[in-house]
């Protein structure tokens, strides 16, 4: 499966920590997902939505598996981890 990395991310995608992401997705797929993740969360050299939270998120796993309802299709599972800090708790 070929995934395209947006042009503005092409300079960043070569240095993304793909090896740190577990799962059965290809390196190319992981690189494309990381590029989109960085673009959306505003980490790296880009400013994006939710940067204060995005910089604490860690993309830890990307798996691609057969869809259980439609076997001819595939689905992806992307797992992110975050440490909840006291400032995020409203009590």
Polypeptide structure, described:
There is one protein chain. The chain has 91 residues and is an alpha+beta fold. It has one domain (20-88). Helices cover 25% and strands 19% of the residues. The protein contains 3 helices and 2 strands. It has helices at 10-13, 27-41, 51-54; strands at 58-66, 74-81. It has a two-stranded antiparallel ribbon with strand order 1-2. Strand 1 and strand 2 (74-81) form a beta hairpin.
Which terms summarize this structure?
91 residues; alpha+beta; two-stranded antiparallel sheet; 3 helices; 25% helix; disordered N terminus
Whole-number tally of structural domains? 1
Low-confidence stretches: 1-15
Mean pLDDT: 76
* Secondary structural class: alpha+beta
Spell out the blueprint of helices and strands.
Elements: H1 10-13, H2 27-41, H3 51-54, E1 58-66, E2 74-81
Antiparallel strand pairs: 1-2
């Amino acid at each position: 499966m070929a995934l395209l990395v947006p042009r503005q991310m092409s300079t960043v995608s070569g240095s993304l920590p793909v090896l740190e992401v577990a799962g059965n997705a290809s390196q190319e797929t992981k690189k494309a997902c990381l590029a989109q993740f960085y673009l959306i969360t505003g980490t790296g050299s880009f400013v994006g939505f939710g940067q204060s939270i995005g910089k604490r998120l860690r993309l830890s796993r990307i798996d691609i598996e057969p869809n259980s309802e439609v076997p001819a299709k595939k689905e992806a599972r992307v797992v992110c981890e975050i440490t909840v800090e006291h400032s995020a708790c409203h009590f």
